[in-house]
Design goal:
The complex is a heterodimer of chains A (295) and B (289). Chain A has 295 residues and is an all-alpha fold. Chain A has 11 helices and no strands. In chain A, helix 3 packs across helix 10 (246-254). Chain B is α/β, with parallel strands linked by helices and 289 residues long. Chain B is globular. The chains are: A mainly alpha (295), B alpha/beta (289). The interface between A and B is medium-sized, with 21 and 29 residues. Chain A: This is Phosphate transport system permease protein PstA.
Chain lengths: 295, 289
């Protein structure tokens, strides 16, 4: 530092321009902030609107034409009932398909064709699944319009590709040395899958399934397509009860003329939906962390 | 019983067969009971055994007779097919889609590649220990009991687990923590756990694929001691790239060189002191490979 005369090598290497460094850094920061800030603004806006509306009465009442008495309970329970059914349907189907594709299927053209199509199906718009559900479950199987089963099956189809793909990734992540150890002990394929592969892949499979359920809970279009009622006043009490769901009820409220609905009640519904969604995602994270520490 | 030394058919047979030298260490150990193991009976025998991965030939017309209840070391440079040979014995190569096996490999006189041989049943008679320790993320007890569980041997599981851990020289270190995870052990302990797992169902043969290559010298020497002890009860075939290790622990040594060719198979002392083939001598003295 003392030899600041510009002749010694100590500072005689010259300077390299950092302009692009700085500019790019600022651009990247801006890109990050645009996403985060708009999300925060949305959440804040909704949360502020929901103040005074989101209370115990809102959570426990059925819908009502008077915004001060309107409640969310049937939609909340309907959503949870649909989610449980979806989980029951997609978990065995998704894990079964993933186990088949990863452990049994030969790497032939048929497997690759199926694989490619599962990836494609994961990107099909949800309204198309709604049409499929309408034709298949409501029309062909005659399950009935807009009930718990039809809604659950339709949305289950929608998230099945996501569940399969995430389960496949979890199974693929099981080290081959573990399978070798099992086969080397004289285990059959089933014993190896049952005792070694699935236990080790299960946290990943659970996480993937729960995150897929998080996507399912926000789905509205398929429910509209299978003619689920936007507003239901009673709780579902059978698989064939007409059922509404949180996003559908919110969508319905938003079309009401009164501003109390458009702002207060809708905001309360949105906050409830987000809380349920975040709860689901937190469960996934807890499961993942707990099992990661053990293995 | 004869003590034929087979060599690869492509090289000239070494006809001056070394009869079992009375002083061979491995034999003296097992001879105390005066039983049938005094002379080495052939347990595993390969005839014209070749393996292909797709078009590539990994093992070329191997002929070998591996004696019962001794340690047979398989050495050779990387890619010489020694692991492939080991995996032929318990048909682990079946799990590789592109692998194709020709010729015969007889276990106790029965060709294991016959149509009526179930590879799963075969593997229940042959334990395997892999290069890097691969215990399951289960308790120590469940790890050792795994073979018993999948093979339906559900009687006296605790007793068998104890015996296996004792034989694997691990019992003293883990006796009071059988319910903790096998992954909490050190690398050397994990490998001994894997050995315990392999011997718990009481197989006839134990295959070891470079079992000490991922371990430090202390852990390695424990494993080596253990292998010599195991040969009292089991036929041990061990692949190693460590020639000193082969010289220390084995009774017989098979030398594979490039192209999957078994160049020489003989008593370990003979291989290391006076090999028949110049290529083997070059390899052993480090001029090649």
């Amino acid at each position: 530092m003392a030899a600041d005369t510009g002749e010694t090598p100590a500072d005689g290497f010259g300077r390299v321009s950092r302009t692009k460094d700085v500019v790019f850094r600022l651009l990247a920061l801006a890109a990050t902030l645009i996403g985060i800030v708009s999300l925060a603004a949305l959440l804040l806006n909704v949360a502020v609107d929901a103040v005074g509306w989101l209370d115990w009465q809102f959570l426990t009442n059925p819908p009502h034409p008077n915004p001060y008495e309107a409640g969310f309970l049937p939609a909340l329970v309907g959503s949870i009932a649909i989610m449980l059914m979806i989980a029951l349907v997609t978990f065995p189907l998704g894990v079964g398909a993933a186990v088949y594709l990863e452990e049994y299927a030969n790497d032939g053209y048929l497997t690759r064709f199926i694989q490619l199509n599962i990836a494609n199906l994961a990107g099909v718009p949800s309204v198309v699944y709604g049409l499929l559900g309408l034709g298949l479950f409501v029309g062909l199987f005659n399950i009935g319009y807009g009930n718990v089963l039809a809604a659950a099956f339709t949305i289950a189809l929608l998230i099945l590709p996501i569940v399969i793909i995430s389960a496949q990734e979890a199974i693929r992540a099981v080290p081959d040395s573990q399978r070798q150890a099992s086969y080397g002990m004289g285990a059959t394929k089933w014993q190896t899958i049952r005792n070694v592969v699935l236990p080790r892949a299960m946290p990943g499979i659970m996480t993937g399934t729960i995150l897929a359920l998080g996507r399912a809970i926000g789905e509205t279009a398929p429910l509209i397509m299978i003619a689920a009622p936007t507003t239901v006043f009673g709780l579902p009490n059978s698989f064939f009860s007409k059922v509404s769901a949180m996003p559908l009820q919110i969508y319905n409220w938003a079309s009401y003329p009164q501003t109390e609905f458009q702002y207060g009640v809708v905001a309360a519904g949105v906050v409830t939906l987000l809380v349920v969604l975040l709860t689901i995602n937190s469960i996934a994270i807890v499961i993942r962390n707990r099992y990661q520490q053990r293995t | 019983m004869t003590n034929e030394q087979m060599t690869s058919s492509e090289t000239e047979p070494t006809d001056d067969q070394t009869a079992p030298t009375p002083g061979t260490d491995g034999l003296a150990d097992t001879a105390d009971s005066g039983g049938e193991t005094t002379f080495d009976r052939t347990l595993l025998e390969a005839r014209d055994l070749s393996v292909y991965y797709g078009e590539e030939r990994a093992l070329a017309d191997v002929d070998i007779e591996i004696p019962e209840k001794q340690v047979t070391a398989v050495i050779g440079p990387s890619g010489c097919g020694k692991s492939t040979f080991l995996r032929c014995i318990n048909r682990m190569n079946d799990l590789v889609d592109s692998a194709r096996v020709e010729g015969e490999l007889c276990f106790d006189g029965k060709n294991v590649y016959d149509d009526d041989v179930d590879p799963v049943a075969l593997r229940r008679k042959i334990g395997m220990v892999f290069q890097s320790p691969n215990p399951f993320p289960k308790s120590i007890r469940d790890n050792v009991a795994y073979g018993l569980k999948v093979q339906g041997k559900q009687e006296n599981v605790d007793e068998k687990v104890h015996t296996a851990l004792e034989r694997a020289a691990l019992l003293d270190e883990v006796e009071d923590q059988l319910d903790s995870s096998g992954l909490d052990l050190s690398g050397g302990q994990q490998q001994r756990l894997c050995i315990a797992r392999a011997i718990a169902p009481d197989p006839d043969v134990i295959l070891m694929d470079e079992p000490a290559s991922a371990l430090d010298p202390v852990a390695t020497s424990k494993i080596e001691d253990l292998i010599e002890d195991l040969a009292e009860e089991y036929t041990v075939v061990i692949v190693t790239h460590n020639m000193q290790q082969a010289a220390r622990i084995s009774d017989k040594t098979a030398v594979f060189l490039t192209g999957g060719e078994l160049v020489e198979f003989d008593d370990t002392d003979k291989i290391f002191e006076n090999p028949e083939h110049d290529r083997v001598e070059d390899y052993i003295t480090g001029k090649f490979g």
